[in-house]
Amino acid sequence: MVQGNERNFHRAFGVYGICVQNGKLLVINKKGGPYINCYDLPGGSLEDRESLVVAMKREFLEETGFEVDIIKNIGITDFTLSSDWRGLTDEYHIAVYYLVKQIGGDLIEPEQFEGQDSLGAVWASEEEISIGNASPLVLKAFEWLKTGDLGLKENYYPKWKVIKSKK
Questions:
Q1: Could you read off the pLDDT of 78-127 as tens digits, one per residue?
Q2: How far is 81 from 66, CA to CA, in rounded Å?
Q3: How does pLDDT run across 15-74, given as a tens digit for each residue?
Q4: Stated pTM of the model
Q5: Partner residues linked to 122 by β-bridges
């Protein structure tokens, strides 16, 4: 339990792709991080000297098997989780969203290497997604698909729980 003002804070920054086909959003099965055992968007952190666009295309290919074209930069959003991941109390996430379309490749079981946090991708409808099985990134993607807006308000998830194992 954290005493007084003592907080253990982590800031994450990444790029994430929204790919929709037949009314469903492409999501990955997350195998690590605070969204472990949840659906998440394909994407992630940049490597050294990597641009946002190059990172988006690389992450999509590594995590899903899809080669993608970037249609547009949707925008940036942020949110904070009250997290119990790695002893943290707060996870602050800044996310750059892109609308992407598949131009090649097929869904694959991703190669597993250090840093790979995808167990593979699936197509999910909004009805299949909830705060109990999906990351805030996925929830925000469905919000954008409905409204065309990411909004300006930082979302706060005060009771986020890391799902240590699948039920």
A1: 999 887 666 767 888 999 999 999 999 999 887 766 766 778 899 999 99
A2: 29
A3: 999 999 999 999 999 887 888 889 999 999 999 999 999 999 999 999 999 999 999 999
A4: 0.88
A5: 27
Q: Are 57 and 150 in contact (CB under 8 A)?
A: no
Residue 9 burial by Cβ neighbours in a 10 Å radius (0-12, 13-18, 19+): exposed
- Residue 86 DSSP one-character state: G
Exposed e or buried b for every residue in 149-165, given b needs 16+ CB within 10 A? ebeeeeeebeebebeee
* Rounded Cα distance, 45 and 32, in Å: 14
DSSP, res 22? T
**Partners of 59 in the beta sheet?**
none
Distance between CA atoms of 98 and 73, rounded to whole angstroms? Answer: 5
41: its two tokens: 């968007």
Half-sphere exposure of 95 (CA within 13 A, CB side): 30
Tokens encoding 115: 């840093």
Picking from 156, 164, 167, the residue whose alpha carbon sits closest to that of residue 79 is 156
* Architecture (CATH level 2) of domain 9-157: Alpha-Beta Complex (3.90)
d(CA 131, CA 111): 28
Instruction: Tell me the C-alpha distance between 14 and 73, whole Å.
Output: 13
- CA 99/CA 164 separation, integer angstroms: 30
